[in-house]
Amino acid sequence: MLNLTIPMAPFPQPRPRATKNGAMYVPKEARERRMELQAHFLRLTVGQKPLEGPIALEIGLFRAKKRDHRKDGDGDNYEKAILDAGNGVLWVDDRQVVDCHWFFDEDEEGRIELIVKEPGELRRLPPMCSGPVATMRDGEPVTFIPTTNATKLEIAQDGRVWINDTLFVSP
Q1: Is 0.85 surpassed by the pTM of this model?
Q2: Is 26 exposed, middle or buried (0-12, 13-18, 19+ CB in 10 A)?
Q3: What is the CATH number of domain 2-122?
């Protein structure tokens, strides 16, 4: 459906702030960055109406190499910033997103890559991620990122999962 590359560093959606009177607001910098992202979306989709119906997203968050990312927000906050910016521009409402996958990587300046597809068309993980290769028991290769000491992952068609040759999940 859509394949967009936005030449701006990804940013997390901050939590709403409260005034002394209790009114909630989004910080000015966050509003400005969202408007900048929306302007990129509009420029890349000139003449297109917002998508309707269920959609799936794959989001590549390429942060600038020269920055220290230890204080950056969680990935879901980056996802939320993109979903909010796409409302009324790329899609009618972010409630249409029924499948969403994001990943972090680094780039010289930072950029956002966004793929919008029909639900069920997304890969489970991006092809450029590093990590051991897992094989399906029927031989179909998949890629995964280990979160433990896993070096080998196998998935059977019946749903059984082996990690390092040990049965981990059985349906």
Answers
A1: no
A2: middle
A3: 3.30.1330.70
Give backbone dihedrals phi and psi of 13, rounded to 5 degrees, phi first: -80, 120
Q: What are phi and psi of 96, to 5 degrees?
A: -75, -20
**Tens-of-pLDDT digits for all 171 residues of the chain?**
889 999 999 999 888 889 999 999 888 998 899 999 999 999 999 889 999 999 999 999 998 887 665 667 788 899 999 999 999 999 999 999 998 989 988 888 899 999 999 887 755 444 444 444 444 444 554 444 444 455 566 666 666 666 666 665 555
- What tokens were used for 144? 């995964």
Domain ranges of the chain: 2-122, 130-171
